[in-house]
Amino acid sequence: MATTVPGTMPIPSRPTRNHPPGEVRTCDTTGLTVCTTADKFVRYHAVSAVVFLAVGGVGAILLALTRWPAVHLLSAEWYYRVLTLHGLNMLIFWILNFEIALLYFLPTALLGTRLYSKALAWVGLALMTVGALLVDYVILVGDADVLMTSYVPLLAHPLFYLGVIVFAVGALVGVGNFFGTLYIAKRDHTYEGSMPLVVFGATAAAIIAVVTLLHGAVTLIPTFLWSIGLMDAPDPGWYRITWWGLGHMSQQVNVCAMVGVWYFLGTLTTGAKPLSESVCRGAFVLYILFINVASAHHILVDPGVGASWKIWNTSYAMYLAVLASMIHGFTVPASVEVAMRKKGYNQGLFGWLINAPWGNPGFSGFFFSLVIFGFGGGITGVVLGTQQINIMAHNTLRIPGHFHVTVVGGTTLAFMAVTYYVVPLVFRKEFYARTLCKIQPWLFAIGITMVGIGMSFAGSYGVPRRTWDAEHAGAAFPVGIDPGAHVMLGLMGIGALIAFTALLLYVGLVVAAVFFGRSNEGTKMQAWHIERDLKESVKREFEHEAGDHHVPGTVVLVGVFLASFVVYYFANWKWLADVWWVR
Amino acid sequence: MSITTQPPGWFRAPEGAERVWIGVAFLWCMVMTVAMPYWHFYGKQNATGDSYRVTPIEFRDRVDRFIETYKIGEDKGVPLVAPPPGGDAYLQAQMWKWTPVLQLKKGQTYRLHISSMDLQHGFSLQPVNMNFQVLPGYDHILTLTPTSSGEFSIVCNEFCGIGHHLMTGRILVTE
User: Fold this and answer.
1) Above 50 in pLDDT, residue A114?
2) Greatest CA separation found in chain B?
3) When you count CB atoms within 10 A of the terminal residue's CB, does the N or C end of chain B come out lower?
4) What are phi and psi for residue A316, nearest 5 degrees?
5) pLDDT score at A2
6) Which of B5, B21, B161 sits opposite A12 (nearest CB)?
7) Any idea what the Cα angle at residue A422 is, between residues A418 and A425, rounded to 5°?
8) What beta strand segments (E) does B4-126 contain?
9) Higher-scoring residue by pLDDT: A9, B116
10) Out of B13, B137, B142, whose CB is closest to A582?
11) What predicted TM-score, i.e. pTM, was given to this entire model?
12) How far apart are CA A101 and CA A119, in angstroms?
């Protein structure tokens, strides 16, 4: 057969195994030793994640069609209800379930160990499921129209807070199980040397997750006690700071997990290898150390905290976490470039990129995720999170414009991309309609990019976020919106239709494969793309001329990125200089 | 490979283009780090978070006294108030209105006190597009100098219940 599975790895020699009998198998595609218990929970969490993604996705399209003034679909009551539902299902239930799946999958598969505890895995799964269902129920019966942030003194039904707390405890149990797995892998010597980069990234994500979930507990337990009458209302200023310790930091868990997935898919789809392990790992360490102060990004125009606190924290302590992202933004494409050039795709600056396996949804999804997160999310995030520039952005649509290209165009797209490997390798089922699979990441990337651009620029015209009617019809003092903002909201609406179509496609393809797909047990997974034959002479020439650091294409890409960053950054300072003076 | 374990001795200092990029990125981060303190001292637009504790009842009293002292008329049933240039002005946020309508003079500076009677609100001045958070219990003080004249809208941009989109107000700026 002419096909090869890209990224088939050599079987590393491993001194010991720690799996109980009957709970281990050898992967038919990769040759890795797989813990079947971990596999089972990966499947449960992945299915659960996709269900919540579908719920949140239905919410997404209803919201977009309401914010698009030409359609204005929902009533005010249902707009805020669905907005609450959408936020929690997407940002918490979908993402965290998928992340727990990754935290069980990566160490057990790549370190050759068993899962630490089956009982803990059941407890975590049960708590997460019960918590999420409770929250969704309370929202849908109309007892928690408080949006995701539930800013006090807005008051929801006590079961709303309880549901979130139960879910968070479940997630914490899952993260604990991950650390336990790392511990027994080390104790039982299931691997030699240092853990793989991808597992290192997952560990960074898990450490941030612990800090995040503790913030959640500190915020929501007193709020819950207040809702049942046992405590006074928490201070609204204090609530915002600690809640965003949960709200923003959980997005940094997503960033970490997403970057881990980029490295993982870069290797699986092109055989990419990091240029320097120390640089990649160092960047993850910078995340752990500095990313946790980002809760300040939501407090920049608040009363109660002073300018020096805001400036220091908003810079992530001198932007060292931004530095980490910029490092990953270089090393990920550079490692793909090196791998592709070694295969002989060595023409010009971008021959490696043009000839990359764009028909492989694992590759296209990952690379679009990288580009959308970097150019869209990274640049807007830093600019909006600049203390003074935030005056022009706080609570406008620029904010959701930013996080829809980070957490949706970035994290969600990366998770979708990795699903095209998780289903054949863990569920051991093949996808149907493989052409549709190949189109899906493209469609989603186009749609979500339009959503991000539409929201960001509508927000630049001052259109608020979280408002049922940006035209304020019926208000005492009429406030219209700029015609330019109308165009941008239309762009958002059309983009949302495209992205929603791609999301439905994803859910449909995954459900069809998982429940009705052809089993590939006993054989290798069907390859997503076929490596073309290459001329040996070309290959030799490349190896002769340049080492591992010949990455002119990536240098051009990051140059364009930095130029866009600098232009957008200073343009915003210029716009700021034109508004009223304020101190 | 990013998915295989690393044998001891994997640590390597960055080299080549990667090393250069780390240096360039770090420099850019330092530029951005310096930009904010620079603007704090030399720029004209800063959110300093100047604020004091205040209960909703105390704040309402101050707003009422302020309106009584400087009221010059009404706009759509809302008191129209012209505070003295250089002095204090008050704005009360509550579900779902802003009180009063302020008439300011271009180029004059005012200490604008904003607080909420109930939930969290968002002070969003349009079409200038300046946005500040308003919390109950906090007297948030903006030392504000209008640099353009005309009719400006205040929109609430923090969710405050079902009538959130009805919560609009006015600031008039005369030459």
Assistant:
1) yes
2) 80
3) C
4) 55, 40
5) 37
6) B5
7) 135
8) 51-53, 71-75, 78-81, 88-94, 97-99, 101-105, 110-116, 121-126
9) B116
10) B142
11) 0.94
12) 16
Task: For residue A553, give the CATH number of its domain.
Answer: 1.20.210.10
| Three-state DSSP state, A117 | coil
Nearest 10 degrees: Cα torsion B85, B86, B92, B98: 40
Of residues A582 and A542, more confidently modeled: A582
Backbone phi, then psi, for B48, in 5-degree steps? Answer: -85, -10
* Joined tokens for residue B99: 């009180």
> In this complex, do A195 and B5 lie within 8 Å of one another by their Cβ atoms?
yes
Range of the domain at A561: 25-471+495-577
Average pLDDT over residues A230-237: 95
Report the chain B residue with the minimal C-alpha distance to residue A196: B5
Inter-axis angle of helices A158-187 and A118-140, nearest 10: 160
Assigned domain for A560 exists: yes
Q: How far apart, in Å, are the Cα atoms of B58 and each of A7, A421, A448, B52, B113?
A: 68, 62, 47, 12, 13
B175 contacts: CB under 8 Å, gap ≥ 6: B105, B106, B149
Architecture of domain B51-174: Sandwich (2.60)
Is the pLDDT at B88 greater than 50, yes or no? Answer: yes
| ipTM reported for the complex, 2 dp | 0.96
Cross-chain Cβ contact A582/B145 below 8 Å: yes
Query: Which residues share a beta bridge with A271?
Result: none
Of A274, A386, A396, the CB nearest to B157: A396
Tell me, yes or no, whether A335 lies in a domain.
Answer: yes
Q: Angle between the A361-371 and A316-342 helix axes, to the nearest 10 degrees? A: 150
Residue with token string 């915003």: A572
CB contact under 8 A, B2 and A266: yes
* pLDDT surpassing 50 at residue A343: yes
Q: What is the Cα–Cα distance from B2 to B17, expressed in whole angstroms? A: 20
CA A57 to chain centre: 15
Tokens of residue B108, six digits: 């004059």
Pick from A123, A134, A201: nearest CA to A169: A123
More confident call, B9 vs A495: A495
Domain count for chain A, please give it: 1
Question: Which residues of chain B make contact with A314, given a CB cutoff of 8 A?
Answer: 36
Q: Does A386 touch chain B (CB under 8 A)?
A: yes
The answer to whether A442 touches A417, Cβ cutoff 8 Å, is: no
How do the domains of chain B map onto residue ranges? 13-43, 51-174
Is residue A284 included in any domain, yes or no? yes
Q: Mean pLDDT lowest for which of A12-21, A97-106, A403-412? A: A12-21
Report whether pLDDT(A540) > 70: no
Residue A521 domain-assigned (yes or no): yes
Average pLDDT of span A266-286: 93
Q: Any idea which of A238-252, A399-413, A485-499 has the lowest mean pLDDT?
A: A238-252
pLDDT confidence tier of residue A37, bands split at 50, 70 and 90: very high
The region that residue A31 occupies, defined by phi over 0 for left and psi between -120 and 50 for alpha, beta otherwise, is: left
Q: Which tokens in the block code for residue A564?
A: 């866009």
| pLDDT attached to residue B55 | 97
Least confident residue range of A14-18, A342-346, A371-375, B108-112: A14-18
Cα–Cα distance between B165 and A77 in angstroms, integer? 12
- Alpha helix positions (H), A196-271: 197-227, 236-247, 249-270
Phi, psi of A346 (to 5 degrees): -120, 15
Confidence (pLDDT) at A543: 47
Cα A466 to Cα A460: distance, rounded to the nearest angstrom: 15
Instruction: Give the span between the Cα atoms of A175 and A171, in whole angstroms.
Output: 6
Nearest Cα to Cα of residue A218 among A199, A198, A244, A186: A244
Burial of A66 by CB count in 10 Å (0-12 exposed, 13-18 middle, 19+ buried)?
A: buried
B-proximal residues of A, 196-225, CB under 8 Å: 196-198
Of A151, A273, A558, the CB nearest to B120: A151
pLDDT tens digits, A53-67: 999 999 999 999 999
